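For consistency, the fold was encoded as C-alpha cells, as this record shows:
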Amino acid sequence: MKSHDSHPHYWKVFATFAKNSLIRDMTFRTNFILQCVSSVGWTLMNVGFYLILFQYTDTIGADTGWDRDKFFLFLATTWFINSIVQAFFMPNAEEFSELIRTGGLDFALLKPIDTQFLISFRKVDWSSLSNFAAGLVIAAISLWNLSARETNPMVPSIYEVALYIVFVFLGIVIMYSLMICLSATSVWLGRNQTLYNFWFYITNFSRYPMEMYNRGWGKPLYGFFTFVVPVLLVVNVPARILAKPIDPRTPSEWLLVGWAFVAACTSLLISRWVFYRALASYRSASS
C-alpha cells in the first residue's frame, strides 16, 4: 500500500478538479440549467406534498414535536446533506467500476496522490448543489416562522448553529463512508449496480424523523439504522440540535449526539480500511 500523506497540496488539487468540472458543465449550459430546474422541481414537489400533509395533521407522529416548521427545517437539512453527497461523491462512486473495467484505475494508482482522495473527488456535479440553495431558502423561512411565533418563539443560539454545522458535516462523513464501502466492492464484483440501488434504498430511511421507527415493527429498523448502519443519525441529529423538537433536552438525546460523533469517526476508518483492502485485491487490467 502506498502512502501520500505528506503531499501538501490536496486543497489545490481539489480546487482544480472543481474548476474543471465547472468548465465542463458550462460547456453544456442548457443541459446544466435543465438539471438544475429538474432538481429544484423535485424539491418543490416535495414541499407541496408536505404542505398538503400538514393540512391534515399538526405533527409528524404523535408527541414527536415535529410540527410543520420544525419538519421543514428537517427537510432542509436533508437537502443540505444529500446535495453535497450527490455533487461531490456520487459521480465518482458511480464511475469507480468503469475505472476498474477499462483499466483507468491503473493510472490512478500511479498518481503521486492518495488514491482514495483521487477516486473520491475527481468530478463535481455542480447542478446537484441547486438543492442546497433550495434548502437554504426553506431553512430561512422555517427559522423565521419559528422565531415569529406568538407562543414559545424559537431563536437558535450561536452555539446551536455551530453544533448544527458540525453535525451536518459528520452526517456527510457517514454518507461518504457508506458510499466508499459500496463502491469499493466493485473490485470484487466487477459491476455493482445493484449495490447502488441498495444505497438509495437504505438512505431513504434517513429522510424521516427517527421517532417514526422507534415503535412496534419499526424498532428493528430503528436499531439497525442507528447503531449498525447509522444512516438515521445523518439528518436526525443536526436537525434535532437546531429545531429542538424536544425541549428541554433529555439525556438520551445528548447520548445520541455523542454516538453520532463516534459513528462518523468509526465509519470513516472502516471505509478507509475497506477501500484499501479492495485495492490490495485489485489485479491490473493489463495483467
About this structure: The longest helix spans residues 251-280.
